[in-house]
Write a structure and sequence with these properties.
The complex is a heterodimer of chains A (76) and B (691). Chain A is mostly helical and 76 residues long. Chain A contains four helices and no strands. Chain A has a single domain, classed as Non-ribosomal Peptide Synthetase Peptidyl Carrier Protein, Chain A, CATH 1.10.1200.10. Helix content of chain A is 53%, strand content 0%. In chain A, helix 1 packs antiparallel against helix 2. By secondary structure, chain B is an alpha/beta fold. Chain B has four domains: 172 residues, Thiamin diphosphate (ThDP)-binding fold, Pyr/PP domains (Rossmann fold), CATH 3.40.50; 144 residues, Rossmann fold (3-Layer(aba) Sandwich); 79 residues, OB fold (Dihydrolipoamide Acetyltransferase, E2P) (Beta Barrel); 216 residues, Chloramphenicol acetyltransferase-like domain (Chloramphenicol Acetyltransferase). In chain B, 26% of the residues lie in helices and 24% in strands. In chain B, the strands form seven sheets. Chain B has a seven-stranded mixed β-sheet, with helices on both faces. In chain B, strands 22, 25, 28, 29, 30, 31 and 32 form a seven-stranded mixed β-sheet that branches. A six-stranded mixed β-sheet of chain B has the order 7-8-10-9-12-13, with helices on both faces. In chain B, helix 1 crosses helix 5, helix 6 crosses helix 10 and helix 13 packs across helix 14. In chain B, 43% of the residues are buried. The chains are: A mainly alpha (76), B alpha/beta (691). At the A-B interface, helix 2 and helix 3 of A face helix 12 and helix 14 of B. Chain B: This is Dihydrolipoamide acetyltransferase component of pyruvate dehydrogenase complex. Chain B: Its EC number is 2.3.1.-. Chain B: InterPro entries: 2-oxoA_DH_lipoyl-BS, 2-oxoacid_DH_actylTfrase, Biotin_lipoyl, CAT-like_dom_sf, PDHB_mito-type, Single_hybrid_motif, THDP-binding, Transketo_C/PFOR_II. Chain B: Keywords: Acyltransferase, Lipoyl, Oxidoreductase, Pyruvate, Thiamine pyrophosphate, Transferase. Chain B: Pfam families: 2-oxoacid_dh, Biotin_lipoyl, Transket_pyr, Transketolase_C.
Amino acid sequence: MTELTELVAGILLIPVAEVNEETGTATTAAWSSLQHVRIIARIEETYGVRLTAREARTCRSVGALRVMLDEKGKLR
Amino acid sequence: MREKPAPRVVEALNGALHRLFDERPRLHLLGEDIHDPYGGAFKVTRGLSTKHPDRVLTTPLSESGITGVAAGLALAGDQALVEIMFGDFAALAFDHILNLISKSVTMYGEQVPMPVVVRCPVGGTRGYGPTHSQSVQKYFLGIPNLKLYETSPFHDPYVLLSEALDHGPAMLFEDKVLYTRRLFRDDVVDAHHRFTLLAGPAGWAHMSPIDGGPADVVLLCPGGMAHRAIEAVNLLRERGIVTHLLVPARLHPLDLAPVLPLITAAPLVAVAEESTEGGTWGADVAARIHGEARQRIRSPLLLSSRDSVIPTARHLETMVLLDARRITEAVTEAHSGRTGDVPADRPVEGSTATTGVLFAAPKLNTNDTTYLVLHWHAEDGAYVTEDTPLVEVETSKAVEEIAAPASGRLRVHVDAGGEVAVGELLAELLPDELPPASAPEGALPGARPAPRPVPEPTPGPEAGRYPRTRTLDRVQRATAAVVSRAHREVPAAFTAIEVRIDEVMTHLRRMSAATGAEVGLPEVIVKAVAAARPAFPHLFGSLRDERTVELADRADVGVTLDAGNGLYTPVLRDCASRPLAEIADDLMEFRLKALRGEFSASELSGGAITVSLNPDPGVLLVHPIVMWPQLCMISVGGPLERVSLMDGVPVPCTATTLGLAYDHRAVNGREATAFLRTLAGALRDPEQLAD
């Protein structure tokens, strides 16, 4: 399964090395609202989860996405 | 306390007439036996003559005379309702309706208001016989200036009558059996279905299953047929067929635009009506649908009553008039023929029952029942080799290439541009030893004429050459229909201003960090637009005719979203009174739906104004198309890096462009500029949009 950082880097078109847990809407200009939706969609597809709108809004960084996926049991 | 039941249609009509007489001092009612205590043959006018004796006139038995007097009242500046006791008798009023009432609107060199509404009880199933049971709507279709409405259990008759009077002349058809049925209330139809009104209270009723699901069938019918259609929908439900029902308040002219996305997304469309066959409303609607949705759907299924006078004997009348059972059976049969349930006698791929190999459309995915044939890689009559790409078809998800199942000479059965159902014959591959010129006449029943002679087989790089084309998908074709109409109908003008967004972006970053949930510029702009409605009410609404703007009673704001699967404009409801976080939730939901392509028709209709979002960096200016019948569309460009002077010192800042395209018939440039300045002010001081 694609690692979360690779997934995010692939959509934002930035090097994987530049992606860390803090990477998110507040820190990365490339993480626009449209890219955010694309990231959510790719995560749903890759990890087999379905996010609510509120979850999509609160998962604003790689770290937050990882916590969400862990809580849904998708990282074990 | 037990809730009072919803009114019966006859009570609602009676209440509507009382209210109209209270509101309109120049309104008159003419008809036979309409005075109290009789109150009309169906009691629709009960109590009116007692309350308004000088304006409710019971008349001699002359439909022609009554209608002529009504026309005279309208020409003299009054308003008139005519009650025809049975719609069948409207034939006697036809001359005045055709040659006086409808023509007077535009035959005197200027627009003349003709507030006349002719009410006609129609329909059978009561055993009233051939001359008291007809559905006469079809005889009045297509008369210029004459609008036709029909009562329904979904629509408030007051709204229909008001609109008919304000935009008349018009006729209101009232199904006699419907009189005794209750109106639906609170969006509920039955345990399985709910309804919404699309395009306003006099628009379309859309009944859909509570448990959701895309429609296998979209059924359209006038209001008088609604209960039989609902019964059929429930019978179809038991058979596993999901049916959505559409009922218009106005039969003619019919505005299909609000329901076209729903219609084009359905595998099967059916139109049901009580009128006897021939020259009917249903035929007109089916033709319109076929014309506007050509190549997207198959020809609609038309269900009318049989070609017969309507018998008095109930058991014979039942055989003539369309009922729920016949709708159910016809839809079931048509549906099974379009879902890939291949009958036993239908040829399938690989069969060798005839001289050639039959090539049927395979099932390419679980969702589609039909495909659009885009392109044949070989010409009709050409030799093709097994397993080489032969035909491209478009599914709802992608363009698929299908290889030839065998070698042979190609005989095409479905040309490029045509639709093919799963299991249906696409082509035959004839043995090469069968020379085209010597193929015996009729060797293949129903086959085309003998194939053209072709050169020797030369499959190679040149074999698949063809003009490069792109077929627009369903969503884009729906967009094309909307913007084409807007371009035709709306004389739009455009104004734009540039506004700094540093303050609002800082505010949003803080808010997002504080709440842990992302809030972006689009949500704030939607909120600012909604907040401006009280100061600019005439920018929120729709143009009903050249003289009237229907103002929206709340700020329902559409937003353009394109996540790569087509352009959608879902509507955020009641944005003025809801907190920013809720709007942000809804917008995120819509973004996800745009990506998944899973909107319902009701989510895409009913906006009072629309915002076009174009957030990509560097987008300088967007000139949107006004979404008819709305009056305005706001556009928001991308972030622009600027340098501005602050106390004489150049400082970097970020700006964006706000644009407003507006229908110049209803809005002028001064208002447009003032509106944009108001939005800009809200962005400079975002605290004012705080919840």
